[in-house]
Structures are given as structure tokens and as C-alpha cells.
Amino acid sequence: MGSFAISAAAAATASLIVMTMLTGGHAALARTAFEKLTDFDYRGTTYYSVRNLSLYECQGWCREEAECQAAAFSFVVNPLAPMQDTLCQLQNETAASNPAAQPQRAVNMYYMTKLQIRSGKLFD
């Protein structure tokens, strides 16, 4: 069996494994999404803070951290500064998960609550 045949067989096997994972039975894949609020904030417990990230980077850090339930991203608008001063706060507890909780008004703030969306077979 030549190397081309081995490569083709390996690719076919990998494809079959991926297709089985995606379509197999009633197994569902979980995807992470965020509900983003502009100029609002919820009470929460911050376990990590980092400065000078972009909004996208802040969201990515929360996406990668298993314990992160929400990210609060604030920034200071200064047209004379070459870079905006930003603060990303990762929270492992948030009042946003309580439907009765009311967000507080905030200035120059994005509040992103992590959601786990299960995708897969929805209807029979």
C-alpha cells in the first residue's frame, strides 16, 4: 500500500470520526455564546482583572476560562491617547443569572454573560 493510499485511508477515517461525533445519536454539542449589554452592569464576584485588552480579547479570555460566568469590560474615552485605557474583569459569580436581578446603569461599559448553547438534534 503506497503512502497516498495510507493518507487517503487516514483522511477517510478522520472524516468518519468527525461525522460520527457531529451526527451521532442524540448527543449534543455545547457552544459558547454571550449576551452583551451596553452601558449596564450586574453585581458579581471578580476573580481576575486585566488592563488594556480589546473587547474581543476580553470575551475570548472568558470563553476559554471554565469558571468565568461573565465579563465586565469598561473603557475610558480619551481622543488624545494613542490607546484607550480598558479594564476586563472576569467574574465567577454574577447576578445576571437571576431573572429578578436588575442591571445597574454604567458609562462606557459592556457586560457579557456567558451562555452555553446546546446544538444538535432539536426535533424528531
UniProtKB/TrEMBL annotation:
Keywords: Signal. Residues 1-27 form the signal peptide. It comes from the Eukaryota. InterPro entries: Pan_app. Residues 29-114 form the Apple domain. The keyword Signal applies. Gene3D superfamilies: Hepatocyte Growth Factor (3.50.4.10). This is Apple domain-containing protein. It comes from Odynerus spinipes.
